[in-house]
Amino acid sequence: MAHPHTPLESWAFLLLPLLLLTANFVATNASDFNKNFRVTWGDGRGKILNNGKLLTLSLDKISGSGFESKNQYLFGKIDMQIKLVPGDSAGTVSTYYLSSIGSNHDEIDFEFLGNQSGQPYTLHTNVFSQGKGNREQQFHLWFDPTAHFHTYSVLWNPQRIIFSVDGTPLREFKNMESIGVPFPKSQPMRIYASLWNADDWATQGGRIKTDWTKAPFTASYGSFSINACKWTSKGSSCTSSQSSASTTSTATSRSSINSWMNQELDSTSQERMNWARKNYMIYNYCTDKSRFSQGLPPECNVS
Q1: How many whole angstroms separate alpha carbon 115 and alpha carbon 123?
Q2: Is 111 a catalytic residue?
Q3: Which of 111, 136, 264, 271 is catalytic?
Q4: Catalytic annotation on 107?
Q5: Which of 63, 104, 236, 247 has the smallest number of CB atoms closer than 10 Å to its CB?
Q6: pTM for the whole structure
């Protein structure tokens, strides 16, 4: 889906440190889907319920559904609670991701690939920069993601992108522009989510098809928080002249800024990530030498 946006002026990034000091940061901790998101497709299959505290997406044989954030953001920490499609979810894909638009778009992906009853979901992650992806890492989870809500988080700052589940980091994608690896830093992104049919590839390489007798399939999106730098139609990132949409005090907002704009993994978080990757990672593009027969991507050679 295409969404119009104003291209970022190149000079803004030369002044990025100054802009961050005078930033308009959005700190949205009071979850209200009506205020922060809109259902964009699905012909009624996406529903905002409970006075804006819950959003459900459904999928049947005719269509899936999806929603997007009303604002665009350039760097931030986004937390979203999700309860995935229960039971036989083979062939379905539930998503939660950030994306800009255009052929050279940037994107930060959580995708949840359904499975037959009793078989684990596959959590699929990817990072696109300047239109190039192919950076997939996949995981199983250490809990049933359909029984309760769990928190899936994206931390995106100028130095790194960190994917986390319930506070446990799964993946870190560092800014390695110094060795020629593009990094998402110049295109504002919206937050998106969707539920759709992908039984040509999603479950066991497409061997297991969607059982439409189990439809409609429903994924639920609950509490969320957005601590991020908002982008407006004025085309100027995080200037103090923008109107504030913060739901917290200025002091609290700036405290939140400091917590994520320069955040990195401490030793405890690194240990947790190592544990998750050792026990639950099932695919890593950085070890797929048969796929990259001409040599692994350069970021894979950095320890």
Answers
A1: 11
A2: yes
A3: 111
A4: yes
A5: 104
A6: 0.87
